[in-house]
Structures are given as C-alpha cells and as structure tokens.
C-alpha cells in the first residue's frame, strides 16, 4: 500500500532509540524526510546517518531536553526553519518513573506533567499553525495502554498520560475542519529499555526476578509475547497516511490484546 506521504516532513521526539526511532524509520521508509530529537547527541547523529543512508531521505537531528517545555517549543521551530513545514509531528518522550503514590512528592508530579503533557503541547504549538495553513497535518502522540487500563506501579504515567489523551481529543475536534488529525498510539508491553526498567522496578519491589515477572505479564497477554518497536512504527506510519484521513481523536491500543476495555 502506498501511504501517500512521500516527501512529507516529520518531526519525531525521543527518536535516538526505542519507539521513537522505530517510528522515524517507518516514516523514512515511506519517503518522509525526518527531523529527530532527544537528549543524546551521539545516538541521534548515528541514527540520522543510518536513516539517510537506508532510505535516501533528509534526516536532521537536534539534541534537546524534551522535559523542558521551552526546549521542546524551540525544537519545533528549528524543524520548521529547516523544512519550511512539519507535516507530521510525533510527540514521544518516554514516560515518568515507575512507582506508587507514596513514592512521589509535588516536585515529581510537576516534572511528570512537564515531561509528558507540556512537552507535547509545546511541540504542537510550534508546528500546528503551518498545518492549519496548508490544510493537512498529522499529530500523533505515543502514550501507553495505561490510558485505557491503568497499570500497577505506574502512578505518574497513569495520571499524566490520561491528561495527554484528554488534550488530544479536544484538539482533534478543533482542527479536524482543517485537514489535521490528532491521534494517540497506546502501546502495551513493547521490547524497549522502558520495559526493562519497569520490570527491574517491579523486581526490586517484590523480590521476584525480572524474568519471572515478565513470564507473569505474558500470561495476561493473549498474543503471549511482547511487541516489537517496528510494530509501533507501522501503526504510526499508517496514522500519518492519506488513507487515515478520517481517523482522528482516536486512542489505538497496540498491546497483543492485553487491555480488556471495550473501547
């Protein structure tokens, strides 16, 4: 299937590795020029060079702390300066640290909101006006299955990611008449460093091995496996496509059947 996004431009957050990098690779494979950002300059430079060589597209990179709203906004403006427009924005910045209510004070909550909600809003604020002007745009937020079914031990993530979905749903209504869609990709257990960190945190809290904890997790997943980052990339690329123009305000689970919610 030709997704119809060849020569479109995309800005992807948290793209030095993991899900962000997988999305950047998937969009580049469709012929999109990409701008990637994260904190690690070395990993970003290597990733951009690899994307450009493999797919023959422009691949720019910028080291930035997406946990800071001002830096996130400036990164959006940087991508606009180099590309003239950002047609596809993928908001992704990992997640807050795992833990329970008693583990966090007000400063932890403030940092989680800044990192997860405010950074997405700041990047969007920078690039959305051009999308509206050209009557075409895609905003895709990488969130978590926890917005549909809260996960144990992820107090900050469960709360703050739900705020992202509320904001995205409201924004989708406002920008739909201008050919701009806003959607959320909600991964379950995907083979990334984030998952490894969660398993280790649960291991330390329970005294079980990370391997035993993972085995227990797999029992609750009908597919009986964790997902691959490339599968997240494929879904994001479809949501960015012309064929997905009538999908907006959606939160799409990609979790092997883990979530039992009806919607």
Automatic annotation (TrEMBL):
SUPFAM superfamilies: NAD(P)-binding Rossmann-fold domains (SSF51735). Belongs to the short-chain dehydrogenases/reductases (SDR) family. InterPro entries: NAD(P)-bd_dom_sf (IPR036291), SDR (IPR050259), SDR_fam (IPR002347). It comes from Desulfarculus baarsii (strain ATCC 33931 / DSM 2075 / LMG 7858 / VKM B-1802 / 2st14). This is Short-chain dehydrogenase/reductase SDR.
